[in-house]
Amino acid sequence: MKTLSAVACAAALALGLLANPAAAHGDADHPKNKEQTAVRKEQKPWGIAGDSKAVKRTIEFVMSDTMRFTPNRLDVRQGETVRIVLKNEGSLLHEFVLGTKDKLDEHA
Fold first, then answer.
1. Residue 15 in contact with residue 82, Cβ under 8 Å?
2. CA-CA distance, 28 to 65, in Å (whole number)?
3. Rounded to an integer, what distance in angstroms lies between the CA atom of residue 63 and that of residue 92?
4. Which of these, 27, 67, 81, 105, is most buried using a 10 Å CB contact count?
5. What is the pLDDT along the chain (108 residues), one digit of tens a residue?
6. How close are the terminal C-alpha atoms of the chain, in Å?
7. Would you say 81 and 51 are in contact if contact means Cβ atoms under 8 Å apart?
8. Is residue 78 within 8 Å of 47, Cβ to Cβ?
């Protein structure tokens, strides 16, 4: 089992997160049916969309106004499909972004 840093872990966790469409905020017009929201299962440097039926465990990340995630570290095996649950216990809006270090730096 590899031990991953929080940044590398975020990349590995895409497997489970991409299995379920996320709710979006904003004024954009969002798709209304499954055909429009289907996940494209294409390999990315940080993973590939997983099959929700293959999930073996759920990991809950708690976000607070201290701008920290709990847990701040996670072990994931290559090929493991996990479900990510995000819980905001703060009053500020937070985001959880997956990608390579270069993409995360670009996003920041």
1. yes
2. 27
3. 9
4. 81
5. 444 445 444 444 544 444 444 444 555 565 666 555 666 788 888 778 888 899 999 999 999 999 888 998 878 888 889 999 999 999 998 888 878 888 889 888
6. 30
7. yes
8. no
Residue 60 Cα to chain centre, angstroms = 11
Structure tokens, 77: 């095996």
Token code pair at residue 101: 């270090």
Q: Is the peptide bond before 45 cis (omega within 30 degrees of 0)?
A: no
The two three-digit tokens of residue 27, written as one number = 């004024």
Residue 78's contacts (CB-CB under 8 Å, 6 or more residues apart) are: 2, 12
Residue 69 in tokens: 């995630």
